[in-house]
């Protein structure tokens, strides 16, 4: 959930008065100028990258895909896509 910020805390009074000419007493969403890639803020992308690298490493060390699926609680199809995708 996104956190709301009171305009008085971040905008100059002159800008607030100008915005109030168009919108009064309503919530106003101002989008970011640059969008962050998925998982970069939370670290999820890096965690998945490390998990996938671990899966590939274990596969190359001799653990079969069925066992990897069980260990990582993933489907066999997902393990296959990680292993074959990483090997390309």
UniProtKB/TrEMBL annotation:
Organism, as annotated: Paenibacillus ginsengarvi
InterPro entries, alphabetized: c-mor_Regulatory_Protein, FERM_domain, Homeodomain-like_sf, YraL-like
NCBIfam families reported for this sequence: CD3324_fam (NF040785)
Lineage top rank: taxon: Bacteria
Entry protein name: FERM domain-containing protein
Domain (FERM): residue spans on this chain: 1-88
């Amino acid at each position: 959930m996104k956190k709301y910020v009171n305009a008085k805390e971040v905008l100059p009074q002159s800008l607030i008065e100008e915005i109030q000419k168009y919108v009064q007493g309503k919530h106003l969403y101002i989008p970011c100028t640059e969008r962050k890639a998925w998982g970069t803020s939370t670290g999820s992308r890096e965690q998945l990258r490390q998990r996938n690298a671990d899966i590939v490493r274990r596969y190359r060390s001799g653990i079969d895909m069925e066992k990897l699926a069980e260990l990582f609680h993933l489907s066999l199809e997902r393990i296959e896509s990680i292993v074959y995708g990483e090997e390309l």
